[in-house]
Specification:
With 138 residues, this protein is mainly α. 62% of the residues lie in helices and 0% in strands.
Length: 138
């Protein structure tokens, strides 16, 4: 015989604090969940609830990005584009990740990719391609 789950009455509630959410994200991230991996990357990127650590942000973004998660691809592209902290600036790799996110309809990535084409950063300068991505980002 299985035990019954406790349930809350409509008048009861429970509270989850930020550290509980971080713990859940970490567990899910370590199990390979791309959304949780992105969330951890974002926390490290912004220093929210953890010490700011761009290398750790990059690690979690990359794990989610290779699974096709557009927001993580944008985050990874941004770290590489701007070279935050100890992250070496790499326009070509940034453009690669921006493109993957842009092709999924991520407007911020479309704009960033347009900027890279306009200025020839990591890609050949191409005003028509820049215009395409800028217009797509609207």
């Amino acid at each position: 015989m299985h035990g019954q789950r406790d349930s809350l009455s409509p008048d009861e509630h429970f509270e989850i604090d930020d550290s509980d959410l971080q713990d859940m994200d970490r567990i899910l991230a370590e199990e390979g969940n791309p959304i949780a991996q992105y969330n951890l990357g974002l926390m490290y990127d912004n220093g929210e609830g953890v010490p700011q650590d761009y290398a750790e942000a990059m690690r979690w973004y990359r794990l989610a990005a290779v699974q096709g998660y557009a927001h993580a691809q944008l985050g990874l592209g941004s770290l590489l584009d701007y070279g935050w902290g100890d992250i070496p600036q790499d326009y070509a790799e940034a453009a690669y990740w921006y493109r993957l996110a842009a092709e999924q309809g991520c407007a911020d990535a479309q704009y960033e990719l347009g900027y890279m084409y306009e200025n020839g950063l990591g890609v050949p300068q191409d005003y028509a391609e820049a215009a395409h991505w800028y217009l797509s980002s609207r």
